Fold these 2 entries.
Entry 1:
Amino acid sequence: MVLPLVSLINVNGAGEQIADLSQLDQKGWINYHYFPMGANLQMVFYHNAKKADDILVKVLLNEDEATIPVKTDCAPYYHWKDVRPYLMQRIEGFKPYEKK
């Protein structure tokens, strides 16, 4: 279940659509880099007691810092107020694959 979630969120560019499967290696999409045995995705939330409304999020893929396409001024952390709308937009825009 990690593959669909990481692709949906576009962690480390895993959500890029590649039409020609022979281009996967050249685009850097090597499945065992994303999904070794025991793969996991973590979102760690940090709460600042001095700034209660500024929650930070760090994304980890297999315990390594990961990126998502959200602007931040404090990498590798993201402001939750920026991440949440991005995630909601991705979820709401998801369309299941339909056979033709």
Note: DSSP finds three helices and four strands in the chain.
Entry 2:
Amino acid sequence: MSNQSNKMIALQNVHKKFGNKSVLNGVNLSVDRGKSLVIIGGSGSGKSVTLKCVLGLLQPDTGAIQVNGNETTTMSSRERKKTLASFGMLFQGAALFDSLPVWENVAFGLIQGKGLNKKDAKEIAVEKLRRVGLTPDVGELSPAELSGGMQKRVGLARAIAAEPEIIFFDEPTTGLDPIMADVINDLIVECVQDLGATTMTITHDMASARKIADNIAMLYQGKIIWDGPKSDIDQSNNEYVEQFIHGSAQGPIEMDVFRA
């Protein structure tokens, strides 16, 4: 069991409903400082809602969420803003601003959040672009001129631009071919190790989970049904986990695809 003081993120009995639909049904999770947790699970299992609750985009109905020892569910707006400043985020679709050049997308948080002047922010942006394998001239392009893989790299450069303590990854390899997905996974591992950051990732991509995780947790019907070191997942002895990691149509996980 992790020492409480070593936990960077901790969720305790977190519940969240939308109307009559229960999405989170008592989530308990923790991420040690400097470690990488990957949450796996199918569509509708509660992964995105869990992430949004940690980010403060959603307020849980009950339960506690601590980030770096601070309870976030009762924070004031000012306290929440300060906490958010220590986060980096790679969004599922990169979420770049079409109206801004690439370098300004990377520097967005430095300029808007930290008040850095554009000259200094651009220098940092160019350095971070280099860190993810993109040349300075890419910084002058618009996001629409980039391939999907390049957009993901830009999104990663933006996530690490302010050298955050905590980075969140939302389906980081969605929409990428297997080779580019592996490139992004490698970059994530390298960048996170360089920063010594704590990370939380949600994904259904087991190749990604196996590469970037220290620990893996599986959500099913709003509860964590298994968690542990990634090296243990193939010996989980959990039939739900076994079905998911092998991508089997047959198994205990109820599929709704034929109920539409």
Note: The first strand starts at residue 7 and ends at 18.
